[in-house]
Specification:
With 246 residues, the chain is mainly beta. It contains 2 helices and 15 strands. The protein has one domain (2-20, 47-184, 208-245): Alpha carbonic anhydrase (Carbonic Anhydrase II, Roll).
Length: 246
């Protein structure tokens, strides 16, 4: 079963991902000794250094943008769950129509704290919905998560992660209401950046949704057992512009 979401206009840019390029499946581990951290970021090799991600989004400096529409058609199920060395990642299926171009949804993964900041503020968690086009272009929607009410869909992801950590194979998540991982209003901030893990490839487009989604503090704490420091440092904006779609 599919559920449709409509986002008021997306820009003429292509959504490209700032996420890990690795998809190797491994067992999840709740041991903090196995956490992937970004403590040695100075050792990363840059493809180029002028358009890197993440950034701090300064809301007083964003530029209004009028874009075309985006239609998301997501299957309501998680096809897999894995720890790829960068984050907990859930395989997903579906499509996104962006400015009359089609992208296939592949996965969502999470960073703690948030990779991007809004007016200097980190959120407890940031999710990246990753889409790919047939020509190799990648499209990502970033979602901020904050402490509040318990989130059923995120709870299902945590339960699947626990099962995988116990060594269970081939885990799927049936009846996953992906809409619970997205805010009701899908206005966004947009800028051109890069991947946030090596090789830090640029010409990546980011769309960070303005409204946050609530998770319970208990759910956040449970995620932190797997990753509590898998976000990259804030990068310089340089001469780039940041757009807003309300």
């Amino acid at each position: 079963m599919k559920k449709n979401f409509f986002v008021l206009g997306f820009t003429a840019f292509i959504l490209l991902a700032g996420c890990s390029a690795s998809h190797a499946a491994t067992n999840l581990s709740a041991s903090k000794e196995n956490h992937f951290t970004y403590d040695h970021q100075e050792e990363w090799e840059f493809v180029s250094g002028k358009m890197q991600s993440p950034i701090d989004i300064v809301t007083s400096q964003v530029i209004d943008y009028k874009g075309a529409g985006l239609v998301l058609n997501y299957d309501q199920a998680g096809t897999s769950i894995e720890d790829n060395g960068h984050s907990i990642q859930v395989g997903l299926r579906g499509t996104a129509e962006i400015d009359e171009r089609s992208f296939a949804l592949s996965q969502v993964h999470f960073h703690a704290e948030s990779e991007h900041t809004i007016d200097g503020k980190h959120y407890p968690l940031e999710g990246h919905f990753v889409h790919k086009a047939v020509d190799g272009r990648i499209a990502v929607i970033g979602v901020m998560f904050t402490a509040g009410k318990e989130n059923q869909a995120f709870g299902q992801i945590l339960e699947a992660a626990k099962a995988n950590a116990k060594g269970e194979k081939g885990i799927t998540i049936d009846n996953l209401d992906i809409g619970q991982l997205l805010p009701a209003h899908l206005g966004y901030y947009h800028y051109l950046g890069s991947l946030t893990t090596p090789p830090l490839t640029e010409n990546v487009e980011w769309y960070i949704l303005k409204d946050a989604v609530q998770l319970s503090q208990e759910q956040l704490d449970e995620f932190y057992k797997y990753y509590d420091n898998n976000h990259r440092d804030i990068q310089e904006l340089n001469d780039r512009k940041v757009f807003i779609k309300s």
